[in-house]
Amino acid sequence: MMHMTFYWGKSATILFDGWRTSTWAGYLLSLVVLLLAAAFYQYLEALRVRMKLVAGGGGGGAKAKAASSIPPPASSDPRTPLLAPAFAAGRWPARVAVAAMFGVNSCLGYLLMLAVMSFNGGVFIAVVVGLALGYLAFRSSDGEDLVVVDNPCACA
């Protein structure tokens, strides 16, 4: 039976039928795995933002970082290729790496969201605490909150 409201208990199906918990040990182990996955999500996001700043040529203080994340204005010449700035002079391998990291991080974020949609209260708390601890460990100390990040996901 699929729950449509929050419930508490050790019996939960997380993400797929093969990941069912029926004992307290299995349930607590699953919660630890979800907490670590959520913290890893924050680590990957911090790494992706740092890679994006390096790939974009940003450096210096927070204002320089914020300015480097803003794309240059588009040329008014209609003959200018749309992809020319994105793949200019050797920057495209770094941009592809950042895009790949964005894809992996988005995949992990959506899997965490689907785990929360099991509606188990413990799963919800484990994911939220993992995100908070990951943010505290990997993203809160270096002032990158000042950087404008182009991530449309609410879980970022």
UniProtKB/TrEMBL annotation:
Transmembrane feature ranges: 24-44, 92-113, 119-138
Topology within the bilayer: Multi-pass membrane protein
Record-level Gene Ontology MF annotations: copper ion transmembrane transporter activity
Main location: membrane
Subcellular location(s) of the protein: Membrane
Keywords, comma-separated and alphabetical: Copper, Copper transport, Ion transport, Membrane, Transmembrane, Transmembrane helix, Transport
Gene Ontology cellular component list: plasma membrane
Recorded family membership: Belongs to the copper transporter (Ctr) (TC 1.A.56) family. SLC31A subfamily.
Protein name: Copper transport protein
Lineage, broadest ranks: Eukaryota, Viridiplantae, Streptophyta, Embryophyta, Tracheophyta
